[in-house]
Amino acid sequence: MRPLSFCHVTTFYPPYNFGGDGIGIQRLVRALARRGHRNTVVHDVDAFEVLAKGRDPGRGVEPPGVEVIGLRSGVGPVSPLLTQQFGRPLVTGGKLARLLARGDFDVINFHNVSLVGGPGVLALGEAVKLYMAHEHWLVCESHVLWRHNRELCDKRECLRCVLNFGRPPQLWRSTGLLSRMARHVDAFIAMSEFSRDKHREFGFKRPMEVVNYFLPDPEADAGPSGPREAEAPPPHPRPYFLFVGRLEKIKGLDDVIPLFREFDGADLLIAGDGEYGSALRALAGDNPRVRFLGRVPVDELSRYYRGATALIVPSICFETFGIILIEAFRSRTPVIARRIGPFPEIIRRARSGELFQTKEELLDAMRRMLGDPEARSRAITSGHAAYLEHWSESAVVPRYLDVIARAALAKDTPAHRRVRAALDLPTDPPPSQP
Fold first, then answer.
1. Which domain holds residue 57?
2. 96: closest CA among 10, 16, 162, 223?
3. Closest Cα partner for 259 from 175, 367, 337?
4. In angstroms, rounded to a whole number, what is the distance separating the alpha carbons of residues 260 and 268?
5. Which residue in 84, 119, 221, 349 has the most C-beta neighbors within 10 A?
6. In a domain, 46, yes or no
7. Domain check: are 129 and 265 in the same one?
């Protein structure tokens, strides 16, 4: 078996990113590099700068085996806007086409391509092609199945919905462009069984594999501060519950913050920032039981996980996965999550954690975490074991590579034959389909 050459195409990539999907892509890229595969990442700087509103992303440093190419159009927001409207990379298309036609990529993995190229980018390049659905963009203009910016989506009202989000409608969605371009993709990957089923429910007909997000193996994530960090005292003097994520209305903190006006057994620490932060701070008022930490560096965040009584995950929208749940499991922190989206799937597989639907159920779960140390200890043990079995790098990357192997066996093109040879797979043409 020889190393493969990957090209990852995505709108956002750290440090030019906002949410967990960019971090998940980076973890995949670095995991592949650790296994000797070559990786080129192509992302859209213009799209980040439009949404970052002057925020400095800082510098990103990648390990050997990873090359990062940031696309700049020279016309700023015009380029991502045209892509959003017409579903094609009208300004950067020439550069993208040249990059993807270099001829040395075995696998092209499309990630969140909404602003880097839209559906049109899926036709570029000759390789085994994957698409990873980090969001519900394939079936939803707003990406999150959150209708009218106020409720879960159970049926399409797309035009009115996108206008309520304050975004221009995407004209290409009524043209069949996505269906035509999807034919160029060999395998589609959902991040959870729930997300795969939602894609099917909302009309996406292509089969989807399920390959979950993962966290780096301990030896890959180790640093000079690791052992000392494990021995460090908790970062907060009182017992506390932890929230981690962007501060948006769909993350559900409106239901959690008011509980701490009367619940005095522990505090609530909120790690993250976002456009809804000022509204949440106003909701908390001068309550000393609620503390906003702002953006917390990844290496420091693990201390907050480890010291927490439990992680609270109150999202009210349909996530595609829940990286923060497995981050908590890895840190030996119990989880209390809303009974929605993929969270029940994760809790069931972990045999750890609690689910809630109402505020009363959330309060009961918080009291149990504080008052029953034996049950909490069992949840910690089960959650950490499940992380190692299901969501560690060693568990997930082989499943990802297996999707590539099966995709390479399904067609007989020069690119597919090249990947079959690299993976020591049968090089004969696949049997013809009836």
1. 5-214+394-422
2. 10
3. 367
4. 7
5. 119
6. yes
7. no
| 142 and 12 in a common domain | yes
Give residue 89's identity as a one-letter amino acid code: P
Helices (H), 123-237: 158-164, 177-182, 193-201, 218-221, 226-231
Q: Are 19 and 32 in contact (CB under 8 A)?
A: no
State how far the Cα of 127 lies from the Cα of 105, in Å rounded to an integer.
6
- Are 222 and 309 in the same domain? yes
The strands making up 128-133's β-sheet, listed across from edge to edge, are 66-71, 38-44, 5-9, 107-110, 128-133, 187-190, 208-210
176 belongs to a structural domain: yes
Tell me if 318 is assigned to some domain: yes
Query: What pLDDT shows up at residue 361?
Result: 98
Query: How many residues appear in the chain?
Result: 434
Residues 268 and 157 in one domain: no
HSE-up (13 A, CA, CB side) for residue 358: 3
pLDDT of residue 35: 97
Report the chain's C-alpha Rg in angstroms: 22
CATH code for the domain in which residue 268 is found? 3.40.50.2000
Q: Which two tokens stand for residue 271?
A: 């790690």
**Pair type for strands 240-244 and 310-313:** parallel
- pLDDT band for position 433 (cuts 50, 70, 90): low
Q: Is 286 exposed, middle or buried (0-12, 13-18, 19+ CB in 10 A)?
A: exposed
Give residue 254's pLDDT band: very low, low, confident or very high (50, 70, 90): very high
Do 286 and 173 share a domain, yes or no? no
Q: Is residue 431 part of a domain?
A: no
Question: 């292509």: which residue's tokens?
Answer: 206
Question: Does residue 325 sit in the same domain as residue 364?
Answer: yes
